[in-house]
Amino acid sequence: MEYGYINEILILLVVSLTVGVLFLRLSLPPILGYLAVGVLVGPYGFAWIDDTEHTRALAELGVVFLLFTIGLEFSLPQLIRMKRIVLGLGGSQVFLTTAIVAATALYFGLPLESALVLGGVIAMSSTALVIRQLTDQVELHTRHGRNAVGILLFQDVMVIPFLILVSRPEGAVDGMSAATVLAALAKGLFALLAILAVGRWGLRPLFRGIARFRSTELFMLNVLLVTLGAATITHEMGMSFALGAFLAGMMLSETEFRHEVEAEIRPFRDLLLGLFFITIGMLLNVQLLPEIWLPVLLLLLVLITFKLLLIVGLCRVMGWDSAVALRTGLVLAHGGEFGFAILSLALGTDMLPADSGQIVLAALLISMAIAPLLLRYNGRLVWRLMPTTATLSQQAIKDRISDASRKLSGHVVICGFGRVGQNIARFLEDEQIRFIATDLDPVLVQNAIKAKEPVVYGDAANIEIIKAAGVERAVALVISMSDDSTALKILSRVRKIDTKIPILVRTRDDSRLKELQQAGATEVVPETMEASLMLSSLLLVTLKVPVSHVFYKMRQVRKEHYALLHRVLPGEDAIAMTSGSSVEEHWTIELNEGMWATGRTFAELELEKLSVKVTTLQRDENRTPNPPADTTLQAGDTLVLFGTPTALEQAEKRLCRRLNSKPGPTEC
């Protein structure tokens, strides 16, 4: 029996690891690295992997899981909430792009279905690249960020009809008429409704029954069964596997098991998506590039310019100023993974000629290579290209905020008016303390204005916006959003103009607690820590511990920056997600006669210099948490130490060495 495919997998792993490390060091998206791997190892590169059945099967599997994960993240409530941007901007962009590209393709002689598929390929942008980079740049909730997300949401939805279209019905050889295209779409719509109906009334009981066994293996088998079952149904109806996988993800996204499915599939989700992009790179025939470089270059310029101008025009029609419109266009002026998915299926069914497919594929690949630069520098490009418009756009927001805050003094500035921000505002109102809040959710701001709340639209990470809110006249600043990256930007910029104003920061956990404090936060409130404090305080009061003592204990914990609550024993998940050398843990050490630590006090041990803390002293039957520094150690004492493994090893060597001996191997 031959195992040649094992060698192919090993080659993919080695090259992917090498290129992945290189791209991460260069701060480039991993997606581009995977595409480069495919080009290098594919049949048209170094030919380390031939274009075999195994490769095509892996490509199909990659597409299936790409669509499954996107379907799992699909949110109908979010689609409804952003309907104006999604249906207005997104719908116009997809339909106009498809129509114009299809009309052009028909003019050059392509069949109707091929022209429509090509229009769909060009219409798509990369959801993975845009969402990730805008999040890193803290631009996801800006005006151009929300526009981009709305358009991407509609593109995700429109993948369904394009996948139906690209699945050529049996018997169609030379092309499909308009009636056949409509029949295929109607057939796909019926499949969509049937699968969603089964999912809505059948999935929840099925998953509840499996969940009772509390077996990860059974749960994952169930997920795979549903995914591949839905994919098989659509395939048997003459459509693609990928469409069924997308529908399976959508079905699971509507159940209470959505988050558990995401958690279970995460370990191999990124690997499969990387595999998909590798197989896309393998489709590119680099040997043809010298012959087709001119049409590739022309198509690339047309693609970027056309999408840019179209999106800018649509944004202007929707009422956005030129600066926001141009930034939205720059963010989306490239190809995307859904375009690759549709294109790969079209090439597999010979719906597009091979030569034309290679030109489109090369242009899409280059556009995605350029996309990170357009995303990263979209703001700078707008300021360079239209400085007057960009200034006026920013000035208009500042003027509105300045008008709202002009009469305020001794007020509180709240950055973020979500649930937490609104709760803070209610307390301030009860105490008749005035405030002004900023937020980037236009619907929320509009509703707040209707309710006569002092809320304005603006990006709090922009120091000019904070100045316009009157931070220099304010008595306090509250950062109530849970985005630590935004909070750090606000802190660093506010502290440059005001070093004394109290700044209170909300964060989800304590992972960046020290970083926020060092950036200038007066107080940092981690939600997980405060929840632990509240539960603990209520428990102590229930157990008849004096209320005054409970309040004192809570104040001490906060004063010590939650140090007591940091001593958490790591579980399997925490260790897996963190490098082993940085996970803090507990070690137990028993002291014997003749050891250096015996007869000394904790103060003399100077363990704090090693970043190690003694959490418990066990002496005979007595257990003393946080023993006093003047406690003298005795032979037979057991110490529980807390710190990183490296620090604990150093502490163990210090405590356990014999008297009059140099530090060496531990003898505990």
Q: Which CATH first-tier class of the largest domain would you pick?
A: Mainly Alpha
**Structural class by SSE content:** alpha/beta
What is the domain tally? Answer: 3
- The fold-level CATH name of the largest domain is Na+/H+ antiporter like fold
Uncertain ranges: 169-174, 572-581, 662-667
Helix content: 55-70%
Radius of gyration: 30 Å
Largest sheet features = 6 strands, parallel
- Count of helical stretches: 28
Task: Provide the residue-averaged pLDDT.
Answer: 80
Tally of strands: 10
- Strand order across the biggest sheet? 3-2-1-4-5-6
**Strand residue percentage:** 5-15%
Tell me about this structure:
The protein folds into three domains: 52-384, Na+/H+ antiporter like fold (Up-down Bundle); 394-521, NAD(P)-binding Rossmann-like Domain (Rossmann fold, 3-Layer(aba) Sandwich); 580-656, Alpha-Beta Plaits. Strand 2, helix 20 (442-450) and strand 3 form a beta-alpha-beta unit. It is globular and about 90 Å long. The protein has 28 helices and ten strands. It has a six-stranded parallel beta sheet, with helices on both faces. The protein has 668 residues and is α/β, with parallel strands linked by helices. The protein has helices at 4-25, 30-41, 53-73, 76-81, 83-107, 112-123, 127-136, 143-166, 178-211, 216-236, 241-253, 258-283, 289-317, 322-332, 337-348, 354-376, 378-385, 387-405, 419-430, 442-450, 463-468, 484-497, 513-518, 527-542, 547-559, 572-577, 602-605, 645-656, and strands at residues 412-415, 435-439, 455-457, 476-479, 503-507, 523-526, 585-590, 613-619, 622-625, 638-643.
